Amino acid sequence: MDLKLKDKVAIITGASLGIGAETALLFAQEGACVVLVDLDEVNGKAVLEKITSSGGSATFLKIDVASEGEVKSGIHSVMEKFGRIDILVNNAGIYRKGDVLSFSEDDFSRVISVNVKGVLLCSKYAALAMKERNYGVIVNVASEAGIVGIKNQIVYNLSKAAVISITKSCAVDLAPYGIRVNCVCPGTTFTPLVEKALSRESDPVAVRRELESSRPLNRLGTPSEIASAILFLASDTVSYATGAVLSIDGGYTAW
């Protein structure tokens, strides 16, 4: 199936590792001009090298998505280089543990600034550019944690629920400008960050097995599986979809 991404300009935040990196590689394989956005220059430039060495088109921008000035400047530089923005993937996010009795105000402020404010800022400035051409697609990366309550991560849960709400609100606000907004809700995915978190557990094998057995498919997801869902929603193949929330969680939220 031709997803018609050739030469489309796609900004992907949190593109240095995991789901973001796999999404960037997949978009580049489909012919998109990928703009990698992250604070992690080392891994970001490694992804950049993978894309360009295989003949793809990519550029890297170091941007803190929680900074309005940096986001605005970054969008401006993309517009100067390419003259348009076709796709935005809001993937950047951070995670903190803590239940309602133990979360810290510092963790709350940082998670909300990246996971919620960052999505809003990137969506705002990308959409301002998209509306000039009456075309654009935004795909937000939420989580199964935004749909159900998962213990000991209340701030992360509420931040991802907010991303789902942002998706629906933006879909309504931006429809008159030809901009579609959808989101994916990944289940626990075996990314480098999850692998690192598991390594800190006293019994990593048991903890992973517990995570796997909590979903009907009895395994964790892979970054490439989530990237494929993002690619699908970003393509014009589903051009009638806006405000959609797509769970890619091995059946976790079906139970």
Tell me what the structure shows.
This protein has 255 residues and is α/β, with parallel strands linked by helices. 46% of the residues lie in helices and 15% in strands. The chain has two domains: 9-186 and 222-247, Rossmann fold; 189-220. The protein has eight helices and seven strands; from the N terminus they run E-H-E-H-E-H-E-H-E-H-E-H-H-H-E. It has a seven-stranded parallel beta sheet, with helices on both faces. Helix 1 crosses helix 8 and helix 4 packs parallel to helix 5 (154-174). The protein is globular and about 50 Å long. The mean pLDDT is 97.
Q: Layout of SSEs?
A:
Blueprint: E1 9-13, H1 18-29, E2 33-38, H2 41-53, E3 57-62, H3 68-82, E4 87-90, H4 105-130, E5 136-141, H5 154-174, E6 179-186, H6 192-199, H7 204-213, H8 223-234, E7 245-248
Parallel strand pairs: 1-2, 1-4, 2-3, 4-5, 5-6, 6-7
Low-confidence stretches: none
| Average of the residue pLDDT scores | 97
Major sheet details: 7 strands, parallel
Percent strand equals 15-25%
In spatial order, strands of the major sheet run 3-2-1-4-5-6-7
CATH superfamily of the largest domain: NAD(P)-binding Rossmann-like Domain
Structural class call reads alpha/beta
Distance between the termini: 32 Å
Number of strands: 7
Task: Tell me the count of domains.
Answer: 2
Order of helices and strands: EHEHEHEHEHEHHHE
CATH topology of the largest domain: Rossmann fold
Please tally the helical runs, counting DSSP H or I stretches of 4 or more residues.
8
Shape: globular
CATH class of the largest domain: Alpha Beta
The CATH architecture of the largest domain can be named as 3-Layer(aba) Sandwich
